[in-house]
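Quick check before the chapter quiz. The format below is the same one you will see on the exam, so make sure you can read both the input and the output lines.
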Amino acid sequence: MNIFRLTGDLSHLLAIIILLRKIWKSRSCAGISGKSQLLFAIVYTTRYLDLLTTYVSLYNTLMKLVFIAASYATCYFIYMKFKATYDHNHDTFRIEFLLIPAVILALLINHDFTVLEVLWTFSIYLESVAILPQLFMVSKTGEAESITSHYLFALGSYRGLYILNWIYRYFMEDHYDLIAIVAGVVQTVLYCDFFYLYITKVLRGKKLQLPA
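Here is the expected output.
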């Protein structure tokens, strides 16, 4: 544990709180990609199966349980409780184009060819692109409300802080995970255009619009 990982985890947690609060308070899932949230639910489910076999710490266990529970709660809100407000007409990204390559890569490039390790690797690859349906939806609709923008910024910051965490661990602990680092860099790059627009528009009180 170091300051970059801790702040990264807190940024991730903040993103989840912003999203769930937005849905619950407005009683609406408008502007939120159900497909991205479904992918995140798959990511956390496959990544945290080690909860059944390994205990690291109370903090580690609680955070994993929170991420799993929150991802399923979000999917429940989108596809069941507030289904009438879900904008499925704009949430049209073909997620099989993300799932299938992630499965193939996990089978071909992993640290150890065991069930848990392959599933963990799959979750790393899939998380790096899981936000694409949300960004595609924002691009398709032309804009994102400020709350959704804050959620995306917090989620992107989480990945950026984890890159700093990996740099810190490399120099201070002589440890690195090439799979996680490459996937994390890819994910952060996907947010770059959004970060620029967030800083130049949302923080100045303007609506965020992505180029179609």
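If your answer matched, good. The radius of gyration is 17 Å.
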